[in-house]
Amino acid sequence: MKKRTLGFWEIWNMSFGFLGIQFGFALQGGFMSRIFQTLGAGKDDIPLLWIAAPLTGLLVQPIIGYFSDRTWHPRWGRRRPYFLIGAILSSLALFFVPYSSVIWMAAGFLWILDASINVSMEPFRALVADKLNESQRTYGFVVQTLIIGIGTWVASNLPWLVSQMGVSDSADVGVVPNSVKVAFAIGAFVFLLSILYTVFTTSEYPPEDMEEFERERKKKSSFVSDIINNVGNMPRTMKRLGVIQFFSWFAFFTMWSLANPALTEHVFKTPAPDKMEYNMSIQEEKEAFDIANTSFQKASNEVGSAMGVYGLSSMAFALLLVLYTSKRRINRKFVHMAALITGGVGFLLMNIVTPEQLKYCFILIGVSWGSILSMPYAMLSSSVDEKKMGMFMGLFNMFIVIPQIIAAVGGVNFISGLLGDEAINAMTVAGISLIIAGISNLLITNKSAITYQPS
């Protein structure tokens, strides 16, 4: 099918739902560890509590990709029904997660939240490939990244912002502060509203041959066998991109799960207090705990705010790419390699920065994040069968979730433990991993993946 060239605002409208998706991911990534610590989790327990996120992605994204490829509704299209269902469930989970009273409840909400976000996210990736011709795909994924950057920055600053507006950071032992509760409620509202905006402003192309589409859809086939067959026939470029994705997402999972304990302890010198070290029946001890806990919560706000800067710098990086790729082609491989190495340096610098300098580390990390959200998908979309775009986008998620699972079940604790007991060592591991990911771009040799070549 000949796809017409879309204007900026059409691409913006079809990508706008990612603002809400990123509100969900930024609040989850920036503050779930803080919630776990508030409820009493130790820093070594946190990665395993995070295992819900990659496991749900591993299960949900290929399934949603498979079924969205086989969906067509005259009014709602192929991908949009999944956006909407995921948005409703995600908004409910976002609202209730900070009201968790025990660790297992917070972990359960994380399962629900991440599964729901994945229901919305995977079809958004496929929609770009569905709607845009080959020459516009880099541009389309970069516009998505621009919106993601906006969402990351705003959402990461929400607890700090509502705290500045007078909402309390103090709370009883084991209770999440009101500043976090209000921030998550705002995130739930933005998530649903932004998805609805895309659903009602964006149309989708129908299948090129409806009769053939219906025959394929009704063909008796096993979902599991189809998945296994497509894994076995995975394009070589996709496998090589998988190596890059493995080290990239190992690094970012390490950041999301352990940046708060690492940076509050090493940079701000205000680790989460252990209530077992305080005798709560003695007033002075309780007051000392409350002071230490409030200091930790405020430092966590600052960490979240600093993390938000990576969304801002990824947005700036994406904007530069939008302006450039709207008129010219780029070498995706070398852009991605340079961006990942830049982010790796940002992680390594966390060992020596002051609280005031921390934002500069996240500026560098944002460059890599902006590239991670666009370049691999642009390279992948030039390397796979368009009729199976949803399926392959879902399978590509394996290279995102497997490294996170490995990190969660002890990988990051083991590797960082080789460097010592300090929490900041986890950020060093993230930096080294991201640099390896950057160098791994040298594996990509497919010319179409590296730079779109018009026929």
Automatic annotation (TrEMBL):
Q: What is its main location?
A: membrane
Q: Which InterPro entries match?
A: MFS, MFS_trans_sf
In the UniProt record, does the keyword Cell membrane occur?
no
The record ties this protein, via Gene3D superfamilies, to: MFS general substrate transporter like domains
Spell out where the chain crosses the membrane: 12-36, 48-68, 80-97, 103-121, 141-162, 182-200, 241-259, 303-322, 334-354, 360-380, 392-417, 423-444
Judging by the UniProt lineage, the source's domain of life is Bacteria
**Where does the record say this protein resides?**
Membrane
Which keywords accompany this UniProt record? Membrane, Sugar transport, Transmembrane, Transmembrane helix, Transport
Bilayer topology term = Multi-pass membrane protein
Full protein name: Sugar transporter
